[in-house]
Amino acid sequence: MKLTGTCLFVCSMLLSISAMAEKITIAGASDLKFAMDEIVTAFKKDHPTDAVEVVYGSSGNFNTQIQQGAPYDLFFSADIGFPRELARNGFAASGVTPYAIGRIVLWSGSRDASKMTLKSLTDPKITRIAIANPKHAPYGKRAEEALRASGLWEKVQPKLVYGETIVQAAQFVQTGNAQVGIIALSLMANPELSKKGGYWMVPEKLHEPLEQGFIITKRAEGNALAKVFADYMNSKPVRAVMTKYGFALPGEVAGKTKTGQP
Fold first, then answer.
1. pTM as predicted
2. Nearest CA among 117, 100, 106 for reference residue 210
3. Domain co-membership, 128 together with 187
4. How many domains does the chain have?
5. Where does the chain have alpha helices with state H?
6. 3-state secondary structure at position 224
7. What CATH number is given to the structural domain containing 76?
8. 92: number of CA atoms within 13 Å, CB side?
9. What does each of the 262 residues of the chain score in pLDDT, given as a tens digit?
């Protein structure tokens, strides 16, 4: 069958668009789940032909995987120390960009956590407390720091159940496998969690800051879309989304400690 001039033109245009389309895969810390999903949805509206895939997990595991050659183009870590380590060791194609400061909260699906404190965790009626694994999850590490600073670590350690990520720790509480958890404030924007009651903000003085940062990985050195997305993260719409999900932004004063909904 002979192609008409119009058909040839259309086919040529489609091939051209296909050639221009790019793809990036983002390794994102689990605390970013709801915020990043919203950010990527907005980004795709302006870049309809490009593909953006996000894989969520623990920052420590991603750090190891990237050093072992995992195919991630950008790495958003809940602990800025991990991308700094990658940059020092030659695994980054950009500088390290701070993008947020996270907070940890006490939350329960079966009781009003807004009336609790860390000391409440010593209650004999509370037998299971969920946190992310401190060995590779920054939010779990900060939970451990807060419990140690409060002199409660040894008392509550036998009750602890560990999630591989902060999202899994929240799921343990949500499903009743734990009665209470120390989770990310950013997850409280999920109606499935927030509708079950309030939360209590763990005082920042009890743990090191949850300073978060990202890099473009060495793998994406020539990927223009990775650079475009990195620049987009500093736009006003993105900053508004991050604030909406309870993150403090670099260079801005964090909000006052509060209880209740974000």
1. 0.85
2. 100
3. yes
4. 2
5. 5-20, 33-46, 59-67, 81-88, 138-149, 153-156, 166-174, 191-194, 224-232, 236-244
6. helix
7. 3.40.190.10
8. 19
9. 444 555 544 444 444 444 456 899 999 999 999 999 999 999 999 999 999 999 999 999 999 999 999 999 999 999 999 999 999 999 999 999 999 999 999 999 889 999 999 999 999 999 999 999 999 999 999 999 999 999 999 999 999 999 999 999 999 999 999 999 999 999 988 777 777 767 999 999 999 999 999 999 999 999 999 999 999 999 999 999 999 999 999 877 544 433 333 3
Domain that holds residue 137: 103-206
- Annotate 83-141 with DSSP letters as a single string: HHHHHHTT-BSS--EEEEEE-EEEE-SSS-GGG--GGGGG-TT---EEEE-TTT-HHHH
Tokens of 20: 């221009």
**In angstroms, how far is the first alpha carbon of the chain from the final one?**
62
87 occurs within a structural domain: yes
